[in-house]
Amino acid sequence: QVQLEESGGGLVQPGGSLRLSCTASGSVSRFNVMAWYRQAPGEQRELVAATATAGSTNYADSVKGRFIISRGNAKNTVYLQMNSLKPEDTAVYYCNYQGVRADQRYWGQGTQVTVSS
Question: Among 16, 19, 60, which Cα is nearest to 40's?
């Protein structure tokens, strides 16, 4: 089992910035992919950004150039730096962990990000 603890959501004005954090604990594999997804009301959950332990990253087109995903030195913490936020970024953001096996997939509890003036 892997537990994910998220923090950093909140209310921000358009054009502002927020940083989300997610720390994995428990049976964390040496090789994994950690990602941020988001889900707006009435919408499907979508991938925002992902990073593998090898260092590769992947971003949704809608956030490229504005969001940056990174890992801490211990590699079990992932950050999402969100800049130039827009009202359409408003959603619940979920941390996701994917281990080597297909059944090693876990979700955080979600953190609300609201972009509004």
Answer: 60
State how beta strands 111-115 and 10-12 pair.
Answer: parallel
Please tell me the distance from the alpha carbon of residue 37 to that of residue 5, in angstroms, as a whole number: 14
Using CA atoms, how far apart are residues 113 and 12, in angstroms rounded to an integer?
8
**Tokens 């800049």 -> residue:** 83
Interatomic CA distance for residues 95 and 27, integer angstroms: 16
Please report which residue ranges of the chain form alpha helices under DSSP H: none
64-88 pLDDT tens trace: 999 999 998 878 999 999 999 999 9
Residues 6+ apart with CB under 8 A from 97: 2, 4, 24, 28, 32, 33, 34, 104, 105, 106, 107
DSSP per-residue codes, 87-111: GGG-EEEEEEEE-SSTT-EEE---E
